[in-house]
Amino acid sequence: MKKHILLFFLTIALTVGSIYSQEIKFISKQEVIDKVHNNNTSIKISEQNFDMAKADYRQTNAILLPSISLSHVGIATTNPLMAFGSKLNQEILTPNDFDPALLNNPDKITSFATKIEVQQPIINVDGFYQRKAAKTKMHAVELQTVRTKDYLVFEVEKAYMQLQLAYKAVDVLKKALKTAIANKNLAENSFKQGYLQKADVLTIEVRVLEVQNQLQNAKSNIQNASNYLSFMMNEKDTYILHPSDSLTISTFAFLTGETISKERADIKALEIVSNSYETMHKADKMAFLPRLNAFGSYELYDDKIFQTNANGYLVGAQLSWNVFEGSKRFGKAQKSKAEFEKSKLQYDQYLSKSNLEFNKAKRMLLDAENKLKLTALALQQSKESLRIRTDRFKQGLEKTSDLLMSETQYSHKQLEYYQTIFEYNYAQAYLNFLTKQ
């Protein structure tokens, strides 16, 4: 049995040594939050989503601003119509050019044309609504970015508390291991003097192994929590993080109304998205109206490249009305209406679910508060019980099994107490996240 214990201790020592050979870095919760705000990939992705929405909105400037194009075209032709028109554009026609023989069979002519074209939208009602919908969507994405940051702050709160809890567990289990080893030494001395049986010594040795295993798991939890926080901060270095403050009962500021505020960023974003779908539906209905656009061009002609011997301009306006497109617009309007109705249902469902989570979180906080009082009292009782049994065991008045039970119960109550502090703080942080506007 002793060989197995020594082998186990050696394995644990090597594992723990590999963990703590890494650099330990002390860090505060605010430092983590600042680094997450600056470096977290999810925030950067949400910011890129906002930039995309902003770019979509800027594209709708085409509804208001003119479209300007510049071109330069060169041709060589013997086509009767093109040849006559090219000479006319170059302003080089002579009476001889009206000779039927030359008109029907002209010589090759070269023409170069520089053209500036301008198109100006005047009235495009559906375009105005599309622009409004794009702006609404951009605002919704901006609010979603805000909520993403709120969620990541909540995740930092949770992960940081998990790290604190892991270090508390290590402290408790180190003390429990020290006590278990002391009891083991005492039991071995009692066994040598004939006061205990071999089975009692083996039972204590098993307890030592159990505590050692729990300690190793707690140290692994430290590494897991450290890695997750490093991931959130987008840091590549594999530090073992150590919180600058320990796990204690915290107090968060949060609203305690009966329902969730509709002004919360994610809920407001869904409402705005629904408004955007409504606006798009109006745009699809307005596509049935005619459009009015102005246009103009300025043209320069010559028989040599980049020359401007002749010029002319053209201005005008066009009122167009696409009366029927094979029911395409009817189907598009029907689809946008369904999307709008769906978005309203999704908004109502999300609001209802958020209120459900809010009420659940309030009950969770109340339960954690009651549990905290109970575990604090139970911890005090188990500590006193262990003290009494330890004194009696040293005097040979207590059974080994009873001492081990008290020792196990005390370490368990310590861990349970710190776990309850974590649950209480987490419930407050979650309520704060749910009520944050």
Distance between the termini: 61 Å
* Poorly predicted sequence stretches spanning 5 or more consecutive residues: 1-10, 12-16
Helix content, binned percent? 55-70%
Main sheet overview: 4 strands, antiparallel
- Rg is 40 Å
How much strand content do the residues show? 5-15%
Spell out the helices and strands N to C: HEHHEHHEHHEHEEHH
Total number of helices:
10
Total strands: 6
Instruction: Average the pLDDT over all residues and give the rounded result.
Output: 87
Strand arrangement, major sheet: 2-3-5-6
Which outline best applies?
elongated
Structural class: alpha+beta
Structure write-up:
There is one protein chain. With 437 residues, this protein is of the alpha+beta class. The chain is 67% helix and 13% strand. A 4-stranded antiparallel sheet has the order 2-3-5-6. Strand 5 and strand 6 form a beta hairpin.
What key phrases describe this protein's structure?
about 425 residues, alpha+beta, two-stranded parallel sheet, 10 helices, 6 strands, about 15% strand, disordered N terminus
Summarize the structure.
This protein is 67% helix and 13% strand.
